[in-house]
Design a protein that fits this description.
Layout: H1 10-23, E1 26-31, H2 36-41, E2 44-46, H3 48-57, E3 62-66, H4 69-78, E4 83-85, H5 94-97, H6 101-110, E5 115-119, H7 124-128, E6 132-134, H8 139-143, E7 152-155, H9 158-168, E8 173-174, H10 187-196, E9 202-204, H11 210-213, E10 218-219, H12 222-231, E11 236-240, H13 246-252, E12 257-260, H14 281-290, H15 299-315, H16 322-329
Parallel strand pairs: 1-2, 1-3, 3-4, 5-6, 5-7, 7-8, 9-10, 9-11, 11-12
Length: 334
């Protein structure tokens, strides 16, 4: 018979997480879509690009990644010598699920003259099959460094790909994946809300469909939406992305009001990411205590996936000239 040690509660739980973080020399990274208690205990909160950069640079021995699996996988790809734990290994992503590696491989093989720009919300295997990874905050900078006549595949998010394609007037072959969370916003309900708050600007994540993005005053990543919240003139903003991001806005900007864009039921609770929500403080405690569940990636696969991530980290700086592009992308053997 095995006995599970029951996690402590309340302040004791917080104290124990803090004790274990120190004992393990661990860093707690959290995405903006995590619940407020996890955001508040994290060492760093960020968007997908910032969290990748932090994972690549940290000198901690353990990364406790409060986000979804592709994010923790990315941390392990970039920092293989570190122990990377994810509080709940089932914290997946509908975009990753939409893009099985064998189908993506066949798609690439059917279009040999196209390079693959791939959203970071995908499996390690798909990263290994890609030329350059992008995040919502780096996609525009990266795309602008690729010559206009270069044919490209964009996957797995057809809404982000479609948004980039429209904005830069560039044709790309789009993989048909969607984020179930951003897909759930309702245009009809958004327009009703806008009638109620005509002066409130709408900030939307590019994972939203065009029916939402087309009404937005600002379109960008989670960190971009946070910057917009600080900078817009006025006192009320409508936020079309996962509603836990509003925790940071409410903390930093107590004099402004943030309203989550509604789903078809007229409120925003259907837009909580069910995968991110699997991580809890109790599971974070257990992950730090047991150093499980742990991310493990086979070395050959990791090295293949790292090439497209390294290309992202370099191109996100915006300084890869035409002459250097071949070198940066040829790091990939897809
Ligand atoms: P960013 O935080 O990079 O904007 O991405 C959002 C997301 O897809 C998290 O799942
Ligand atoms: Fe995936 Fe969407 Fe959840 Fe982000 S919000 S992890 S894209 S399902």
């Amino acid at each position: 018979m095995s006995f599970e040690i029951v996690p402590p509660r309340g302040q004791d739980l917080i104290d124990e997480i803090n004790r274990l973080r120190e004992e393990r020399n661990a860093v707690i990274l959290a995405h903006y879509y995590q619940t407020p208690d996890i955001q508040d205990i994290a060492d760093f909160i960020g968007d997908s690009l910032q969290l990748s950069q932090l994972a690549a640079e940290t000198d901690a021995d353990v990364i406790a990644f409060c986000g979804v699996k592709f994010m923790a996988d990315t941390a392990k790809i970039l920092s293989p010598e570190k122990t990377v734990v994810l509080p709940d290994m089932d914290a997946g992503c509908s975009l990753e699920d939409s893009c099985p590696p064998e189908k993506f491989k066949a798609f690439r093989e059917a279009h040999p003259d196209h390079i693959a720009l791939t959203y970071i919300n995908c499996s390690t295997e798909v990263k290994a099959l890609s030329d350059v990874i992008v995040t919502s905050s780096s996609a525009e900078t990266i795309l602008q460094q690729i010559p206009r006549d270069q044919k490209s595949i964009f996957g797995p998010d057809r809404h982000l790909g479609g948004y980039l394609s429209r904005k830069f007037d560039r044709e790309m072959l789009l993989w048909p994946g969607v984020c179930i969370v951003h897909e759930a916003f309702s245009e009809t309900e958004l327009l009703k809300l806008k009638e109620e708050y005509p002066d409130a600007p709408i900030a939307a994540h590019p994972e939203c469909p065009p029916t939402i993005v087309d009404h937005a005053d600002y379109v960008g990543s989670t960190s971009g939406i946070l910057t917009f919240a600080e900078e817009f003139e006025g006192d009320t903003q409508i936020v079309a992305t996962e509603p836990h991001i509003m925790h940071q806005m409410e903390k930093a900007l107590p004099n402004k009001t943030f309203i989550g864009a509604p789903g078809a039921d007229g409120n925003c609770s259907c837009n909580i990411c069910p995968y991110m929500a699997l991580n809890t403080m109790e599971k974070l405690y257990v992950a730090l205590r047991d150093l499980e569940p742990r991310i493990e990636i086979e070395e050959d696969l990791r090295l293949k996936a790292k090439r497209s991530l390294d290309a992202m980290l370099e191109m996100a700086k915006g300084s890869v000239g035409k002459g250097d592009l071949g070198r940066v992308l040829s790091q990939s053997d897809a």
